[in-house]
Amino acid sequence: MKLIFATNNIHKVGEIRNALNNEFEIVSLKEAGINRDIPEPHDTLEANATKKSMTIYHLTRQNCFSEDTGLEVDALNGLPGVISARYAGENVSFTQNVEKLLAEMQGKQDRKARFRTVISLIINGEETTFEGICEGTITNQPQGNNGFGYDPVFTPVGEVRTFGQMSMEEKQKYSHRKKAVDQLIQFLKEAKS
Ligand code: ITT
Questions:
Q1: Cα(67) to centroid of ligand 1, in Å?
Q2: Domain ranges of the chain
Q3: Which of 20, 139, 159, 171 has the greatest CB tally within 10 Å of its CB?
Q4: Which tens digit of pLDDT belongs to each residue from 10-40?
C-alpha cells in the first residue's frame, strides 16, 4: 500500500520510513510534487493532525496520513505543546526554539516533559487516529547534535543521554513517533487481512 505523508519536515520522513521498515511505501509531499505549506490553525495536536491529513486528502483523493507533535513541559503548563514548531516565533530555527525553552526553564526544579505525537490516517476518506507518548526531562544545556528540534534538550525516562546524543535506532526505542507508527502499522496490517 502506498501512503502520502502530509509533512514538510524531512526529519519526520526519515524517522517514519525507518519505523515502517519498508513494510509500507510512503511518499513525502515533495516526492508527490505537492509544494505547499499546510495550515495548522487549531489549538490541539489532534485537530491540527486532522487538518493536515484532510487538506492533502481533499487535494489528492489518495490515502495519506499526517502527524502533529508537541513537547509538553509541566513547569510551563504544557507549553510549547501545539506551538512547538513556532515557540520562539514564525519561521524560526530549531536552535532559537531550544534557546527560548531553556530561558523559560531557567531556575525551574520540575524538569518533567513529554513528547506527544498524534497521527491522523485517512484511508478511503475515513480517518483513524493514533497517539504515542514519550516521558522524559528537559536538560539544562543542549547535548548532542543528532535528531532535530528539541532532541538535544530532552532525555527520555530510563536514559542518561538526550535524544540528541542517540542514533536514530536508539531514539526509536523510546520515541513517541515510533509508538504511534507501530499502532498505524498494526491497523494497516489488520485492514489488509
Ligand atoms: P509538519 O507540520 O510539516 O509535519 P512541523 O515541523 O511543522 O512539520 P509540527 O507542527 O508537528 O511539525 O511541529 C513540531 C515541532 O516540534 C517540530 O518543528 C520540532 O521542533 C519539534 N519536534 C517534533 N518532533 C520532535 C522530535 O521527535 N524530537 C524533537 N523535536 C521534535
A1: 9
A2: 2-192
A3: 171
A4: 999 999 999 998 889 999 999 999 998 888 8
Quote the Cα angle for 51-56-61, to 5°: 125
- pLDDT tens figures, 110-126: 999 999 999 999 999 99
Classify residue 38 by its DSSP letter. Answer: P
Looking at domain 2-192, its CATH class is alpha beta
CA 58 to ligand 1 center in whole angstroms: 23
Residue located via cell numbers 486528502: 57
> Is residue 149 in contact with ligand 1, taking CB distance under 6 Å?
yes
**Cβ(81) – ligand 1 distance below 6 Å:** no
Q: Letter for the amino acid at 114? A: R
Helix (H) or strand (E) holding 14: helix 10-20
What 3-state DSSP class applies to 126? Answer: strand
Q: How far apart are CA 189 and CA 172, in angstroms?
A: 20
Cell numbers found for residue 122? 485517512
Condensed to tens digits (0 to 9), the pLDDT of residues 77-86 reads 999 999 999 9
Gap between the Cα atoms of 122 and 119, Å rounded: 10
HSE toward the beta carbon, residue 114, CA cutoff 13 A: 12
